[in-house]
From TrEMBL:
Its main location: membrane. Keywords: Membrane, Signal, Transmembrane, Transmembrane helix. GO terms for cellular component: Golgi apparatus; membrane. Residues 173-330 form the GOST seven transmembrane domain. PANTHER family: LUNG SEVEN TRANSMEMBRANE RECEPTOR, RE59932P. It comes from Lactuca virosa. This is Uncharacterized protein. The lineage of its organism: Eukaryota, Viridiplantae, Streptophyta, Embryophyta, Tracheophyta. InterPro entries: CAND6-7_N, GOST_TM, GPR107/GPR108-like. The keyword RNA-binding does not apply. It is a multi-pass membrane protein.
Amino acid sequence: MNLARIHTGVLLFVLFTAPSTGEITSVKIRSDNRRFIFFENFGFTETGHVSIAISSVSVTSVPVTSNLSRPDPSRIGFYLFSNVVREYMNYEHIPCDLDSKYISLLFTFQDLSPPPQSSFNKSHSVTFPSDYSLYFTNCNTLSYVTMDVRTEFYNTDNANTKDYLSAELTQLPSLYSNFSLVYLTFLGFWILVCFKNKLSVNRFHLLMGVLLVMKSLSLFCAAKIQYHMKVTGNPHHGWNVMFHIFQLIKAVLLYIVMVVISDGWLLLKPFVQEKKINNKVLMVVIPIQILATVASIVIGESGPFIKGWMTWNGVVLVIEAACCYVIMLPTEVICSFCVLYGDVLHVQAIWEKQILST
């Protein structure tokens, strides 16, 4: 299938940037003409279940007066896509993913109740343990879909208790809690070191202690979020607000610490003396990093089914990486890159003028 590579790219991006956790999600899609909409990636066990409920469904075509352009409801639907068979889909040559023999078709719009309800509710049991992705596809060209979607992913144990975390993430609450304790241990060790060297302690050492506190608190909040998500499927219990606050403070403190170290403080001064950072650069980089952190929070809360989600996520990652390089690299190197880029543009402009003149 020629579109399987798109599936693979989306899946790898989600796995390595923001692993999905399978919470209960409600989405409102309005006049969307995308051929594919990625909803969720979830690791199922042999007792996995997925439930999808859609309502207020309408499909319009352009032009609406043409009988030939009426959408075919059998070409619109939801399906599960196993990561195990994604390589085999590259060899399929079919016009629509719903015709693939490698997918688990959940339902098409032919199964909808008649208007005005236009709704459907489907529960599907997964018996083969693997990572699955939920997709919506619309194989009708020039058609726009409007619907309200509610998805629910979970595994069950022997006591028939629902676990809304993906199979590979089910131990995440305890893992975050343990790392929170590890950072508290580092904080205690740091306090002990500072106490033994009181004469040489300054504000920078206190700042590093606060950074450890923020990191420990953010991990503790993350553990609470994952625990509530595991039990209820809903990550919004107030802990997510505290988590984002601590994450934002931690990001700002981390960049301040990086700036101080890069400017040649303390024990690293003999080795990083050349990495002087221009104050004007810092005044630009730190606000940009704060905005990037806020944007990352907003994007993370929105979900992969939003238009341009992958693009904006990639842009934020590039901005954060660029901020790190700008702070850690010497100002002279940054200026050299800017001058070199300007020279390249200048040569390109001269070359284009010569071509046009000939």
